[in-house]
Amino acid sequence: MGTLTTVFLAFGLAADAFAAAITSGIKIKSLRVNHALVIATFFGGFQAFMPLIGWLIGHSFKDLISEVDHWLAFGLLAFVGYRMIYESIHTEPTKKERDPLNIYILLTLSIATSIDALVIGISFGFLESYIATLVVVIGITTFILAFTGVFIGNKCGGLFSNKVEIAGGLILIGIGTKILVEHLSHSP
């Protein structure tokens, strides 16, 4: 996988964490740098760890599905991308105020925003992609975007969160399409 594709994938996967960080920033009244660091560390750590777990799962089963791995990768990426777009349009904001610095809320948000990274990791396990670089780029990108998102949310409110998730979904669908087209064009 090329550098540009890796970066786009990282941004696509980080989009929902960025949106959640914006929402967290809205809810924190007296924001300090350490608040943003905690949130970004949770989001970045889970976004980096989940594709590694997924890759290990996918890598274990790749021999069983080697004939359709490109279709599976396309399907998983397209599904996750579509789900991100759908949820950004159809999800209503929660009425109940929650403390985004509460450890249980942080764990729940971190897991929820990184499930798509787990699925992507599975698809890359099928494709024999090199996972170490991908994990590092996803983790760092998510950390930076989440850290920034907390401050954006605190200052600007929720103007961008839905648009970010839509863009992330479109990026994932585009990467899935690219994988499928490349494989089909190189097939005998």
TrEMBL record:
Keywords: Cell membrane, Ion transport, Manganese, Membrane, Transmembrane, Transmembrane helix, Transport. Its main location: membrane. The keyword Ribonucleoprotein does not apply. One of its GO terms (cellular component) is plasma membrane. It comes from the Bacteria. The keyword Cell membrane applies. GO terms for molecular function: manganese ion transmembrane transporter activity. The chain crosses the membrane at residues 6-24, 36-58, 70-89, 101-124, 130-152, 164-181. It is a multi-pass membrane protein. It is found in: Cell membrane. Probably functions as a manganese efflux pump. Belongs to the MntP (TC 9.B.29) family. This is Putative manganese efflux pump MntP. It comes from uncultured Synechococcales cyanobacterium. The gene is mntP.
